[in-house]
Fold this protein.
Amino acid sequence: MFQSEALHGFMAYRSTSFPQALGLASTWDPALVKEVFAAAGDEMASSGNNQAFTPVLDLAPDPRWGRSEETYGEASRMGVAAIAGLQGPTLLIDRHHVLATAKHFAAHGQPESGTNTAPANYSERVLRESFLVPFEAAVKEARVGSVMASYNEIDGIPSNVNPWLLDRLLRQEWGFPGYVTSDGNGLQMLYEVHRVAADKAGAARAALAAGVDFDLSDGSVYQTLLAQAKQGVVPLGQIDRAVSRVLAAKLRLGLFENPYVDPAYAEKITNSPEHRNWRYARPKKQWSS
């Protein structure tokens, strides 16, 4: 399963680049956002990529945070629209669409002092009334296939080792059936930054138990799980659980039946005139006073 970014279009050379997410949100037009990400998903899928690390559902209440332009401000409707465009209309994802990833879960958009990855100290009530709203919509309405755990801590607990966040809330309460991925090198941060684990092996045990199914990095943290399982330190059931969730995502994408792409179609669709002229070809919306 190949993964890539699609924040405002498939992030690859020669692909179509659309306006940044905050600009798309400023249109107040979810149907338009859905069209944009349908085009981005088609370009991504045609290249052989299967999962987009998009959309960013963080709120953006602090302008000091340097990633505010990646967000939709405070609009969950835009996130649902983006996921619908990326994944398509059915639960099974065809070769013109990709698996979407809701990120960064959670409370990543208003860190202390506006510093990226800094702690987010908020009560459960504040979390539920604001930061969690777009993610709940992504899970319950858009059936997003993957969720990315954030770098930050919430009330002193890093998201990658937070069972309340990743299991009790996300899976048990919201019914999320997909798989959870760490952010890039997020599991290394457990022992390098947060200091809640002594080493890679400890980080792997804690993250797996909390509900992180995939190690998005060089894989070195979760590579320790094989030896730990043989030693009886890590229950095989936890590994089976994570593996089954990733396999289910591959089944949803149809990768076992049809793993290949059509190079001619990729050449035709990528940065095509239809995608470059998307805004001008679409009927203008009539606003009522």
Notes: The CA atoms of residues 57 and 217 lie 22 Å apart. The beta strands are 3-4, 51-52, 101-105, 146-149, 153-154, 157-158, 179-181. The radius of gyration is 19 Å.
